């Protein structure tokens, strides 16, 4: 067995690079068979999200086994050679793209399917972080004679995975989709690197995936959560809470309305998209000659899961900005509240207000 | 703006939608704008005045090609020419096999009857893409523009389902008629529905290999007949807003198909040396939260893709 290091955002990350696998489990605690436990490989994406120090320890109530980052072929050997405690094993496609001598996409997915089948024998569900295909460093439009880009290699892996993950029972944390939702310009400094909103988004994606699968027999949801006002788009952020549908102490289910919010945004005529427009940026220095106007957008924020509203921090009629904490949610109706106690953001959805 | 909308509503109440007087008024407004600001833009086209040189960008595909209308400000900065960019296609007549059918020819009499009965767009059977120039509707006074650049997309091959005439073998896409209409309208015209079922069979979606073979033929034909630069748009490869972890319960073959098309288009680009505007990358960079569809872009998306489109044209030295 050999340990190696790879650089990730300038920091060395421990990886396993050999296929001559012994029977030793790395950093493993005692045998956890019979308990629900989480085993994870600490690739940079997992280490910065669901594997953040303390997060699983606080929420899971289960044993945590942390393994170094490893490629799918090494993971397959590890799983063959070791007993994995029942529960969840979380790994990533990250190393497939960033280790030298990458495997072919179908080899990688073959390995992961093998791992998933072996794990099923231990009553372990395999959770797989995928990769974002967004690469801010490459703007290729002409491919003749050019080597494969990072995005192409990532797309090939994902296409293979999408064909086989369902039958293999692999639970997929869709990093490509998550980054697309929040926008890679602000969250992807380099290929495979994630910051800010994308990491928070993925952490909760992983929590939701594990909770929905029932792999741990309980919930990873934080006991106290911030109810954050979502943004409508990049320019539409300021507004007012126009109505609360629930009061503190009330239980809400997935999809229940929580509060209405009216965004107000200043819109230049040039920015109005489908409207007919006639502009000449050269004459106006890039600005529209038309006057701006205020546009109101009403949304209803709905619960993304079951919880209790503990506290309202932005009352009806108060002005607020997307990202502000409008209230505190919790998994039980009683106990200490306060957004300072909140361990995560409560998942919400939005729909156009009726 | 409110006054303008109220005036339009009032006019439509008396004259109906798309009346001759509304068309006339729109044309007057567009001409005035062109005269005063040098550029006029609508959802599917942009026209701008410059020197005597003329440059034309012709889009032929689904609504994702409408981004070329957004490229006006950047096109004007890139060239001193008088120019037009028009997305002339519609999704229901730009699937690659329908485009090639216009070149290979169809039985004119049979097509005429079907066109009338299904109210099909006449462009479905006309080789519009391969005509040498184009005139922007409402700007006939500007004359015809050359097709210096042809913008194509893979979105229609990904999404449209066609039907084949059982006897004559030609393809139609009746979408936009009763297939996309209110169910009451469809039921009100059951004779046509029965006639359609009797005369047509489902041709289904195109396999990837067939699409790529069609794209190759189309690119060759465009180059041979028009000498134009060909640019393809790819599409978003994720499903906006979709949160699925267990693919067994909710697999998305459409998303995977889009990904495989994007990869295959790159391989074709390598072979044929056309450029791809990577809409997938741009959309993922800007963020797709709130996007309702993989090709129905919001204004910020259109602008970002349009800017990239003009960058591609610059690097292709289209304006030199």
Number of helices of chain A: 10
Quaternary assembly: heterodimer
Detail the poorly predicted runs of chain B: none
CATH homologous superfamily label of the largest domain in chain A: SGNH hydrolase
The main sheet of chain A orders its strands as: 1-2-4-3-5-6-7
- Portion in beta strands of chain B: 15-25%
CATH topology of the largest domain in chain A: Rossmann fold
Structural class of chain A: alpha/beta
Number of domains of chain A: 2
State the strand order across the main sheet of chain B: 1-2-4-3-7-11-12
- Mean pLDDT of chain A comes to 80
CATH architecture of the largest domain in chain A: 3-Layer(aba) Sandwich
Largest sheet of chain A: 7 strands, mixed
- Give the total of beta strands of chain B: 12
Question: Strand-residue fraction of chain A?
Answer: 25-35%
How would you portray this structure in words?
The complex is a heterodimer of chains A (354) and B (320). Chain A is α/β, with parallel strands linked by helices. Chain A is built from 10 helices and 17 strands. Chain A folds into 2 domains: 193 residues, 3-Layer(aba) Sandwich (Rossmann fold), CATH 3.40.50.1110; 129 residues, OB fold (Dihydrolipoamide Acetyltransferase, E2P), CATH 2.40.50.100. In chain A, the strands form 3 sheets. A 7-stranded mixed beta sheet of chain A has the order 1-2-4-3-5-6-7, with helices on both faces. In chain A, strands 10-13-15-8-16 form a 5-stranded mixed beta sheet, with no helix packed on it. The longest helix of chain A is centred in the middle third of the chain and has 19 residues. Chain A is globular and about 60 Å long. About 11% of the residues of chain A have low confidence. By secondary structure, chain B is an alpha/beta fold. Chain B is built from 13 helices and 12 strands. A 7-stranded mixed beta sheet of chain B has the order 1-2-4-3-7-11-12, with helices on both faces. In chain B, helix 5 crosses helix 10. The longest helix of chain B is centred in the last third of the chain and has 20 residues. Chain B is globular and about 55 Å long.
